[in-house]
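Posted in: Structural Biology > Protein-Ligand Complexes

Title: Requesting predicted complex, uridine-5'-diphosphate-glucuronic acid in pocket

I'd be grateful if someone could produce the 3D structure tokens for the following input. Sequence and ligand are given below.
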Amino acid sequence: MVSRKWLANDMMYQIAVVGTGYVGLVAAVCFAEIGHHVTCLDVDGDKINLCKSGIAPFFEPGLQELLARGLEQGRLFFTTDVNQAYRDAAAIFIGVGTPEQPDGSADLSSIAKVARQIAENVKQDCLVIVKSTVPVGTNDKVEQFVRDFKKNGIRIEVASNPEFLAQGSAVHDTLQAARIVIGTSSRWAEDLLTDIYKPFGLPIVSVSRRSAEMIKYAANSFLALKISYMNDIANLCELVDADILDVAKGMSYDDRIGAKHLNAGIGYGGSCFPKDTKALEFLAKQHGYNLRTVKAAIDVNRDQKTILIRKASSRLITFSGLQIAALGLTFKPGTDDFRESAAIDNISFLLHEGAEVFAYDPVGTPNFQKLFPQGRHEAGNITYVTQPRDALKNAHACFIFTEWQQIKEITPQDYRQLMHTPLVFDGRNILSIKEMAKAQVEYYSIGRQRKG
Ligand code: UGA
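-- Reply #1 --
Done. Output follows.
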């Protein structure tokens, strides 16, 4: 067991969290919320200063409040100073990024940098916990790396503790996680992590480090597969005049299938499914195995992202000079993150083809503008609007990429009255076919029965 000298009070620990992204910062504020004493470390001084002043560096429901409370109650600290972060830490959680490399593999350079920094700076026994999503076998390498660089005789062990939060509900998903996965074969590490998580009162699954690493990839790839499967079936539904919404509903009552992640649409995006499916496929390939199911999920998703453009191309002779409304820029509602969002591929194509794009998103615009600044791009032009209906005014066609509530609230009559030509391509199936027909809006969606 860990020595009592680290305990702030009964069961409460000194914790360091490296990386203040979605994984690190959300874990940190939640650890502080349940009473641990948490210091966050990041190389980005601006981000650390924002957090110190109580401002969350990204949008996430509930994060701001927890951050403020942690600071106010003196349980949450932010620093760029390695020594300050690691001093007295009984547990160091690593939550740095593992981005995709051009060949599909995960870039582990940040993990390696942090592991070496820990080995060279920590002065007391501690447990290093890898929360970042890393390929199977990485924790073994991190432990070896720490041993290679360690200067003194202190005990540093490495455990895996993958994160399962989804963006847009990250705080909720952490405080009320379906399960905590702990990957270690060390009794000491398992006891310490169990103690740290005990106040959350959540089910704990204790497995080997490699199994824990695999659980994360297998879970994400399974969900990605579920979505790609529904998209595949949706495309078939269109050909045989069945309706994917009814099909999904009928399937969902079987609790072996479940009701979640069954929504067909314009494909999955975000910082996780696209990256993790490719990393798992890469891992399989490295071991000489052809992971056909995951490969199929990736292939279907790639094609699904441009399905609306294909539908629109068979309806319109050109996009050049047309005014196009683009509704929703983030990869899903509830986040300002647009990584791998369908809007990127589609808007990029529309601009290339010479369209005049009017784009709306309730929170994602500032981030999206970094990629597509307002103004001319190739043959086209992009203008950002702050009200969804402003994007529709005089538009020749509208594309719906994200199912934000503000976009769902636009009525069929709004499309009819505001647009030059009421022609809507909906990548999220948020509108009623019947109502759109009644309002005389020409409406295309994904996998639904033509008559509605
Ligand atoms: C995903 C997982 O859901 C989390 O459990 C996991 O921890 C996280 O990745 C991660 O590895 O960090 P996230 O990417 O935030 O979380 O979002 P999801 O809600 O899973 O959505 C991912 C994408 O799939 C979005 O583009 C969404 O629009 C799409 N999606 C989701 C569908 O097309 N259909 C659905 O039924 C559900």
